[in-house]
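Bench log. Compound arrived from synthesis this morning; before running ITC I wanted a structural hypothesis for how S-adenosylmethionine sits in the protein. Inputs:
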Amino acid sequence: MVARLQAGGRMLDFGCGSGRVAMAVKRAFPAAQVTGFDIDAQSIQRAREAASGQNLKIEFATAPPKGQFDLVTICDCIHDLAAPVETLRQVHRLVKPEGTLFIVEPKAADRLEDNRNPVATMFYGFSLFHCMTQSLACGGPGLGTCMGPGQTEKLVREAGFRGFRMLDIKSMTNLFYAATP
Ligand SMILES: C[S@@+](CC[C@H](N)C(=O)[O-])C[C@H]1O[C@@H](n2cnc3c(N)ncnc32)[C@H](O)[C@@H]1O
C-alpha cells in the first residue's frame, strides 16, 4: 500500500469529517490522489479550508465518490452509521479488488462487563450524548461507541468483505482493522 500511494495511488477517507486523516495521508504521500467524503456539509467546508490553508490538494465532497480506490479509510465512523451494512456495502464497491479498507474504531471489548475501565467509561459518555443517540434519531441501530471487535467484524463481513483482521497497532484509545474485498 505504501508503494502504491507513493506511486500516485487513489485514497478515499469515507466519513472524513473535517479532513484530518485525508490531510495526514496527503502530507505523507504527496503523489497520492486523496479524496474525502462526508454527508455533513459543514465538516466538508471546514476540511476544504484546512487543506487549502496547508496548501494540500485534496478533493473534499458531500457527493458520493466515483470509481474505485486502492485505500479507503473509515475512521471513528462505522459505529455512527444509521444504516451500517448498507453503507458498508457502498464502501465495499469503492475498494479496488486488490485494495484495502482501513478501519479505526474506539477501543472497547465486545461484552459490557469487560468494559469497566476509564477509557470505556469516557466512550460510553460520548455514546450517550452523540454516537448512539444520533444513529437512533435517524432510525438506525444505535450501535454506539463501544460496539467492540466482534460486532465490527460481523458488519464488515455482512457487507461483503471477505478478509478481516485486527492490526497490531498499539493505542490506549483505538482499535485498528484491515478488511479486503
Ligand atoms: C466521529 S466523526 C469522525 C470524522 C473523521 N473520520 C475523523 O476521524 O476525524 C464521524 C463522521 O461520519 C460521518 N458520517 C456519518 N454517516 C455517514 C454516511 N452515511 N456517509 C458518510 N459519512 C457519514 C459524520 O458526518 C461524521 O463526520
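What the model suggests: The radius of gyration is 16 Å. The chain has a mean pLDDT of 97.
ITC booked for Thursday regardless.
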